[in-house]
Design brief:
There is one protein chain. This protein is an alpha/beta fold. The chain has 3 domains: 18-29 and 253-330; 36-232, Glycoside hydrolase/deacetylase (TIM Barrel, Alpha-Beta Barrel); 359-435, Immunoglobulin-like (Sandwich), CATH 2.60.40. Helices cover 22% and strands 26% of the residues. It is built from 9 helices and 24 strands. The strands form 6 sheets. Strands 2, 3, 4, 7, 8 and 9 form a 6-stranded parallel sheet that branches. Helix 3 (48-61) runs parallel beside helix 8. The structure holds zinc ion. Zinc ion (ZN) binds next to loops.
């Protein structure tokens, strides 16, 4: 009896003593944005319809896919190059599309990198005819080797939160006439289980597919899945295969630790992993949340200001592992200057986004020129002012482009979508706004 009482008291004392540390509890999300599950759409054979039809469809929903090219089939390098610039992943599907691509693991990567520039290089490969080549050559050159499956067998082909058992055998469910036309079924099932599912599509019914004539899929089937994902954005993370793989590998290897000695009204953290950068730099942003009762914060990592959100007793932000100390500052602790009249609903700080080569060039500025402004109106539309003739690009919190357009008129609604932080780039100016 006494022993039990004593031990309960000891536990209580321990909790009390660590109360401050408890307030600094930080956790890394299983999936970006603390969503429930992940899905990747991959496209094989470099069909012309991937440039002409898939890319605009994905852009419409603000999502990115993975496009596996066959070097010797003369893909539209310029079209796929533009897709890479826009955040899609270009990947390898061998040089020659022989029965087995053994011997082409390194050379196909190098050949595609000669045409396509993207932040992480060519880091995933899909095997022609689903035949696994030399596994060690695959894993020396790629972070993912993708196989395929003819159909969805009640969930046997999907993956849990830690990915596949073998990164040289990442499964994907084939769609179209030789596969399944049910994308939403496996997608919903996997997301509900907190896992990751990938789909493999060739060309599209009735479109210009070039050499990708096998197992055409109705474009409307893909659109139905993207629409479902968008409607369930808080649960479903859609991202290219290489990005999801990178996220899983980083998340499994990373830790976030409170740091001592920060200024009053701040919490400091170190986010780090020790994955070797032998194939790619593992610096895909991880989603973090910190338990806190602060209602307004500023989050920085090194020199960069990070987008952040306070919700339900947590502070949310995305940070890059091994990139300097993360400092969360209580923004209510110090007096602040009044916010710009041009951006009445944007209470959060401007942000530098580091997750893609396109956004890393942004230098946030005060939008001083010409009275240019960006804000979220009462109906949740990102709206710009005085941007006539200027290029307008909206990025989501992952740094992916969700809208590009040109400024017309003195006031213009440019985008609405899921809640969260966005970066609006107008010409060379950039501003963070928050759809609430
Ligand atoms: Zn193929």
């Amino acid at each position: 009896m006494n022993y039990k009482k004593l031990s309960a008291a000891a536990v209580a004392a321990g909790l009390f003593a660590t109360g401050y540390a408890f307030a600094q509890d930080a956790e890394i999300a299983t999936w970006a944005g603390f969503r429930k599950g992940a899905v990747s759409f991959t496209f094989d054979d470099g069909a012309p319809s991937h440039v002409s039809d898939a890319a605009p469809l994905f852009d419409k929903y603000g999502y990115k896919g993975t496009f596996n090219l066959v070097v010797n089939w003369n893909p539209d390098w310029s079209g796929f190059g533009n897709m890479a610039k826009n955040g899609h992943e270009i990947a390898s599907h061998s040089n020659s599309h022989g029965n087995n691509m053994s011997g082409e693991e390194a050379s196909s990567k190098k050949n595609i990198e000669g045409h396509i520039q993207q932040k992480y290089g060519i880091i995933t490969v899909a095997y022609p005819n689903c035949n696994v080549p030399n596994e060690s050559a695959v894993l020396q050159n790629y972070i993912v080797g993708r196989i395929c499956n003819g159909s969805w067998q009640g969930g046997s082909d999907d993956m849990g939160k830690d990915g596949p058992s073998n990164w040289a055998k990442v499964p994907a469910i084939m769609t179209g006439s030789q596969g399944t036309n049910d994308i939403q079924g496996p997608l919903k099932s996997t997301v509900n289980k907190g896992g990751w599912v990938a789909f493999l599509t060739h060309g599209f019914s009735g479109k210009n597919n070039g050499s990708a004539t096998y197992s055409p899929t109705d474009l409307s089937t893909i659109e139905g899945a993207l629409k479902y994902a968008k409607e369930n954005d808080k649960d479903v993370w859609v991202a290219p295969m290489g990005h999801v793989a990178m996220y899983i590998k980083e998340r499994k290897a990373s830790k976030i630790e409170p740091q001592d000695g920060g200024a009053a009204g701040t919490m400091s953290f170190k986010l780090s992993h020790s994955i070797a950068d032998n194939i790619s730099k593992y610096d895909y942003p991880l989603s973090i949340r910190v338990k806190s009762d602060w209602s307004k914060v500023e989050v920085t990592q090194g020199e960069a200001k990070l987008e952040s959100k306070v919700d339900g007793g947590y502070i949310y932000f995305d940070a890059v592992p091994n990139e300097g100390t993360i400092v969360v500052k209580n923004a209510n602790a110090a007096p602040e200057s009044s916010s710009s009249a041009e951006a009445p609903t944007s209470s959060s700080s401007e942000a530098a986004v580091s997750s893609s080569s396109e956004t890393s060039a942004i230098h946030p500025s005060a939008f001083e020129n010409r009275g240019i402004a960006a804000y979220v109106d009462n109906n949740g539309y990102i709206t710009v002012q005085n941007a006539q003739g200027m290029k307008i690009t909206v990025f989501n919190s992952l740094g992916n482009v969700v809208r590009t357009t040109k400024g017309i008129g003195c006031e213009q609604k440019v985008y609405t979508g899921a809640k969260g932080m966005y970066i609006v780039k107008i010409g060379n100016n950039a501003k963070a706004v928050n759809i609430k």
